Amino acid sequence: MEFNEVLGKIVIDNDLHARWLNTLSYMENAGARKISASESKDKVNIIILKHAAEEHRHAYYLKKQIGKVDGSLCRTYTNAELLSPNSTKFYLQALDIAVCRYLKAQFNLKGEDLKFGAYLFVTYAIEVRADELYPVYQQVLDVHRSKVNVKSIILEEEGHLEEMIAQLETFSADWKQHAAHVVEIEKALFNRWTAGLAKEVQPLEAV
User: Fold this and answer.
1) How does pLDDT run across 129-139, given as a tens digit for each residue?
2) Residue 154 has pLDDT above 50, yes or no
3) Mean pLDDT, residues 137-147
4) In terms of Cα–Cα distance, which of 123, 121, 126 is closest to 101?
5) Selection from 13, 5, 11 nearest residue 207 by Cα
C-alpha cells in the first residue's frame, strides 16, 4: 500500500487520525529531546537552540490539532495512543545509533564531536523526510477537507533543511557523500515504520 493510501485511510477514521497526529507529535518531541541531548555544555549555537525550540513547538502544535479530530483522544504518548508504537519509538533511536557508528568509522569522532556530528546528519535525514512527508499529508487533508492542517510546519521544515546543509558544508567537504549514506539508513527505517502503519489500517479495508 502506498504511503498516501495509508494516510487516506487514517484521515477518514477519527481514532486513527488522532493517533497519527499524536505519533507525529511524539516524533517531533523525541527529535527536540535528541537535539538538546546533543548539545555541548558551552558551545551551543543559535541554530541548535532554534531547532530544538521549533521541534518542541511542532510537537505542541500537532498535539493541539488532535482537538480538531476529537479532543478526548490521545492525552499522552502511551503505546495505546500511538500508531505502530514499537516502530515509532525504535525509528529515531535506531537512526541515531547507526549514524554514530558510521561517523566513528568515517571520521574517528568521539564525545561531544560525535554527538554534534550525529546531530547534523540525523537532523539532515529527518528534514529530508519531513520535506516529503508533510506535503503528502497536507494533500490528503485537503482532499478530505479536514480541519487539520500542517502548512506552518511545512514552511519551517523547509528552512530547517537549508540550515542543516549550511552547517554540513562547514563540517566536511564530502558531506553529500556521507549524507547520502545516512539518508539510505533512514529510508530503510522509514519503510519499516510505514509497513507498521499499513498493518494498523488493514482492518478498515474489510469494512
Assistant:
1) 999 999 999 99
2) yes
3) 97
4) 121
5) 13
Q: Which amino acid type is present at position 92? A: L
Closest CA to 29 of 53, 65, 4: 53
pTM (two decimals): 0.93
- Here the cell at position 117 is 556530528
Residues 117/109, Cβ–Cβ less than 8 Å:
yes
**Which one-letter DSSP state was computed for residue 192?**
H
CB 55 within 8 A of CB 31: yes
* Displacement of CA 144 from its chain's centroid (Å): 23
User: The C-alpha cell of 50 is what?
Assistant: 532554534
- Report whether 35 contacts 52 (CB < 8 A): yes
Q: Is the CB of residue 100 less than 8 Å from the CB of residue 179?
A: no
Distance CA 24, CA 30 (A): 10
Query: Where do the structural domains in the chain lie, given as residue ranges?
Result: 3-202
Express each pLDDT in 159-193 by its tens digit. 888 889 999 999 999 999 999 999 999 999 999 99
For cell 554540513, name the residue.
Answer: 168
The predicted structure's pLDDT at residue 29? 95
CA distance 192 to 204: 20
**Burial per residue of 21-58, b for 16 or more beta-carbon CB atoms within 10 angstroms, e otherwise:** bbbbbbbbbbbbebbbebbeeeeeeeebeebbebbbeb
Asked if 157 contacts 127 with a C-beta cutoff of 8 angstroms, the reply is yes
Residues recorded for the chain: 207
Q: What is the mean pLDDT of the chain?
A: 92
